[in-house]
Amino acid sequence: MAFDKIQFGQSDLQIIPLIFGGNVFGWTLDETQSFEILDDFIDKGFNAIDTSNNYSHWVKGNTGGESEAIIGNWLAQRGGRDKVVLMTKVGGRFGYDSSFDTKGAYIKEQVELSLRRLKTDYIDVYQTHYDDEVTPIEETLRAYEDLIHEGKVRYIGASNISPERLVESLNIAEEKNLAKYISLQPEYNLFDRAKFENLYQNIALEKQIAVIPYYSLASGFLSGKYQSEDDFAQSARGKGIQEKYWNERGKRIVQAQKELAAQYNVEPSAVALAWLLAQPSITAPIVSATKFEHIHAFVDALHIKLAKEDVQKLNEASKY
């Protein structure tokens, strides 16, 4: 399936504008299932995978690093490392009693562990998962600069970082000629719009940062499986999703999605992803799959181009 690649921010990386979220590996998918889903994703023409050094620490019996290890084993078996754009993260917690850490020495220690698990000698985009907000920004950036100089990392990005620290990081990188964040991974979807649009969108557009949102389907709320009260009782996560999203605004969004899904003859999830792709500030949504039909919806999301009035319809339904 031929898709057009796009340039990833201010880098020479070229990606198909939809990224696989590796949080499901070692959690809802075991290694065999992960290999099958990854094969299908790549065989359908996609080429970018995002994970983190601490996925999936929240699963009983896991310690973190399981997702990277599965991806590494898959890459070793399949080959073609140069055809995959591999993104991972550092600085997040391993277990809920640990803390965020973006100290230089910690980043340098963790990159070696990630490279070993991923069975590769370089990471395409190495991202600050959570800024600890106390480490001097220059210390963090110098560590990344060293890793780029050593060829272990090609580019860097940021995820959970305040707008102030993001701008300061970009300014310091410019002033001191250090590694610069080329991507931002915020929470953003049809429901969760306000934070990104009010605090980050202008920075991203002005600085030409690649924006790769996580929770693109709002933890599954926008997947199409929640259409009525009864649907929430069908899954373990249903109750939490219902409490967070099933209000008047949530119902309006689901209804608009449903109507457009019927119009375009696709799944509602494809509509939610197509809406993200229609936003001028968005480079590529990050989205996970546990079934082959989910990947089929990813394909549809790239093939349909929402008409202007349909984007407007979704904007209206989801206004806050």
From TrEMBL:
<dbReference type="InterPro" id="IPR023210">
    <property type="entry name" value="NADP_OxRdtase_dom"/>
</dbReference>
<dbReference type="Pfam" id="PF00248">
    <property type="entry name" value="Aldo_ket_red"/>
</dbReference>
<dbReference type="InterPro" id="IPR036812">
    <property type="entry name" value="NAD(P)_OxRdtase_dom_sf"/>
</dbReference>
<protein>
    <submittedName>
        <fullName>Aldo/keto reductase</fullName>
    </submittedName>
</protein>
<feature type="domain" description="NADP-dependent oxidoreductase">
    <location>
        <begin position="17"/>
        <end position="318"/>
    </location>
</feature>
<dbReference type="InterPro" id="IPR050523">
    <property type="entry name" value="AKR_Detox_Biosynth"/>
</dbReference>
